[in-house]
Amino acid sequence: EAQVTQNPRYLITVTGKKLTVTCSQNMNHEYMSWYRQDPGLGLRQIYYSMNVEVTDKGDVPEGYKVSRKEKRNFPLILESPSPNQTSLYFCASSPTWGLSYEQYFGPGTRLTVT
Amino acid sequence: AQSVTQLDSHVSVSEGTPVLLRCNYSSSYSPSLFWYVQHPNKGLQLLLKYTSAATLVKGINGFEAEFKKSETSFHLTKPSAHMSDAAEYFCVVSDNNFNKFYFGSGTKLNVKP
Questions:
Q1: Could you say which of A54, A91, B31, B59 has the lowest number of CB atoms within 10 Å?
Q2: What is the pLDDT along chain A (114 residues), one digit of tens a residue?
Q3: With an 8 Å Cβ cutoff, are A100 and B104 in contact?
Q4: Which residues of A touch B45 (CB under 8 A)?
Q5: Considering all CA atoms of chain B, what is the largest pairwise distance in Å, rounded to the nearest integer?
C-alpha cells in the first residue's frame, strides 16, 4: 500500500531531551515536507526537501533540524525541545517539486513537551 | 508574500443543504491553490486544486471551487451536504516554485441531521 508513515504517533517528553520523529514514504517521491498544526493556525511548514541531500527552510524552522540521506526517509529532529514545540506534526510527500502535485500526508505525530 | 485567509472558522449546515467555505488569498503572481480535508484524527487528503487551467475546478466527493482573480477568492462549494462531509477544510496556496505551501487557519464543517 502506498503510504507515508510516521513514528512515533504519540510522544510525551521533557524540555531539553533530544528527540527524532521519523517519516518514511514508499512511493519513490522526490519531495518531502514537515508541518506542524496548532489550533487556529492551520498547518505551518517547518522544512522541506526536494531530493536527497537537498533541504530548505519553511516558515517556522527555528528549533528543528532535518536530514535527507535516503530518498524514502525524512526525519525531524528536535535537539532541545521546548514546551512551545508541543504540537501535532505531519510529514508529507509528493512525486516531485516544481509542479503542483498533490501532497500525501502521514497520520500525524502528537508531541507534548513538558 | 503569499497568504490565505479562511473567512469562517466554523460553518454549520443541515444535511442536504448547500455548503460554502470561503477562502481569500494573497499572492504576488498567478497562484496555485488547493483545498484539503482533514477528518477527525486523520491526515489530510486533497479535495481539488487550481493551476491556471479552468477557473471552475471539480474535486472529489462532489466538491468544486471557483477561482476568481478579481476577488482573489477560491471558495469551496458543494450542492448538498452529507453527514460524512463533517471535517476540517484547509485552503492552501503555494509559492511559484511549488516548494513552499501556506495553509489557511481552517474551517470546521458541522453537518446536522
A1: A54
A2: 889 999 999 999 999 999 999 999 999 999 999 999 999 899 999 999 999 999 999 999 999 999 999 999 999 999 999 999 999 999 999 998 766 788 999 999 999 999
A3: no
A4: 105
A5: 43
Give first-to-last CA distance, chain A, whole Å: 36
With CA atoms as reference, report the closest residue to B84 among B50, B48, B42, B49.
B42
Q: Give the distance from residue B39's alpha carbon to the nearest chain A alpha carbon, in angstroms.
A: 11
Q: Which residues pair with B34 in a beta bridge?
A: B49, B92
Q: Does A51 touch chain B (CB under 8 A)?
A: no
Is residue B103 within 8 A of residue A44, CB to CB? The reply is: yes
Instruction: Give, as one character, the DSSP assignment of residue B17.
Output: S
Contact call for residues A21 and A38 (beta carbons, < 8 A): no
Using the Cβ of A58 and the Cβ atoms of chain B, whether some distance falls under 8 Å is answered with yes
Closest CA–CA distance from residue A1 to any residue of chain B (Å): 16
pLDDT digits (tens, 9 = 90+) for B80-111: 999 999 999 999 998 877 789 999 999 999 99
Question: Nearest CA to A103 among B103, B109, B65, B5?
Answer: B103
